[in-house]
Amino acid sequence: VSGPVRPDPTDRDDVQFWAALQNGTLSIQQCASCATLRHPPRPQCARCGATRHEWRPVSGAGEVWSFTVIYPPTLPAFADRTPYNAVVVRLDEGVFLVSNLVECPMHELAVGLRVEVVLTRAVAGADTDDDLVLPLFRRV
Amino acid sequence: MTGAAVAGIGQTRYAKNLGRSEVDLAVEAIRAACADAGLPVRAIDGVVSYHIEQVAEVTLQTTLGIPELRFMARTPSGGGGAASLIGLAAIAIGSGTAQCVVAFRARNRSKAASYGTDPNQGGRPWAKSGNKLRDVRQYQHPFGVASPAQEMALIARRHMHVYGTRAEHFGMQAVAQRKHASQNPDAIMREAITLDDWAASRPIADPIRLFDCSLENDGATAVVITSLERARDLAQPAVSVLSQVQYGAPIHTELSTFFATTAAFGERDSGAITAGRRLFDTAGVTSADVDVAMIVDPFTCVVPLALEQYGFCAMGEGGPFIESGATRWPDGALPVNTHGGSNGEAFVHGVNHLPEAVRQLRGTACNQVAGAQIVFVCGAISDPSGAVLLGADR
Known about the structure:
The structure holds 2 protein chains of 2 kinds. Chain A is mostly beta strands. Chain A has one helix at residues 12-22, and strands spanning 6-7, 27-31, 37-38, 53-57, 61-70, 84-91, 96-99, 101-102, 114-124, 131-139. The longest helix of chain A has 11 residues, at 12-22. By secondary structure, chain B is an alpha/beta fold. In chain B, the strands form 2 sheets. Chain B has a 9-stranded mixed beta sheet with strand order 3-2-4-8-1-9-12-11-10, with helices on both faces. Chain A binds chain B through residues 1, 3-11, 14, 18, 39-40, 46, 65-71, 73-78, 81, 83-84, 86-88, 90, 94-100, 111-112, 122, 126, 132, 134, 136, and chain B through 124, 126-127, 129-134, 136, 138-147, 150, 153-155, 157-158, 161, 202-207, 254-257, 259-261.
């Protein structure tokens, strides 16, 4: 397998997450009953049991919860980029996202860095004109 | 006491590229386990395995000539279920559903075979997932996070931040296990390493280095479980299943949920913490009574996490516990993975840790802990998992 890896969601909730990014918004699924956020999208709120949900645009501000620097072997689409960082970001709203930190030298990676989302047009699909928009992060 | 006992153990040679199918390997290991127990293969009436196992129950039944298969069950995820295999078998024995259950794992997925596209065939994660992602991988792969090492690195780094654990602590466990392996004739890695060797091994996903990682190899392992009463009349000293637990928990392949709902350590309660209390309470023993621990170790960084969550040391003390030498045979207070573990003996998704637990209680291990009476075994802690306590029947 080579070439870009991209979401190709069939689940209706996953579709919503990526579509919002295409439209310029990082939105997280939110329970319509108790307002708890959840990610990845799910058909039910694990806290209160409600199934109705909304999509809530979030600030995109957060902190680096953890990080790594990745060396080969890795995904063929990322082989040319090694070593590259990956992070888990905790959004201020309490949701965790796996992502990458842009414009950050390896030696400055740290847990607790304040970050903000950068919606980044990453790759065009192999069989579609749609660009993939990824929620990457940068230091603030 | 569950009323069940491990009566026999068996394994193939562990090596890269054995050039044999997984069925072939499974049959050899199961036959060896039955021979060890002194039971005919046809006595098997239950089979337990991982949900990722490629050898089907029906294949074993027809190949081995099992007249009646009364119990079949699989555990979720891979190495998380290693101890749970014995747990499942004990449930089947204890309920009277089956009399003689074999638990096994067979792998043919070393380098030459590891690029297959079968979803459960092993190999590189990206070789299996394709470019278009429809499951939870769509929230990690587009960011270049796809392998267990990369995922576990993010968990290990958080542990380091919270508790001051150092990458060298993982390295020290790697060194300890390679030392154990160097004295194990069945181990793939027979050369001991130093901490300098570990530090010089190439980085895979910081803080994880190559020598922290499980091996890629072929091989199969099997254990036979019967009632304790029956095991006492068989060929080997019976090894009693004192207690068993399973627990559901988020997995490293879904880090958003992993960090949100439980953690691999005590920032929030985790499945292992409460399950561990159940495990010891049921057996009527404490962690201080354990003589040897088998901790399924896809990467050495899970060892301190397991030691902490199962209560062998305080939260955050897993690294210093390793540094103190506690996990080293023969002098450590709690020798861990005395066969060499997944980075030393072999990677059979942790099922190769089960025979070693049994050998310790029979008194036949190559790195024997003198007078071992109770052995703790747990599956990989970053998965839905479980644990068992095994005891010598004397």
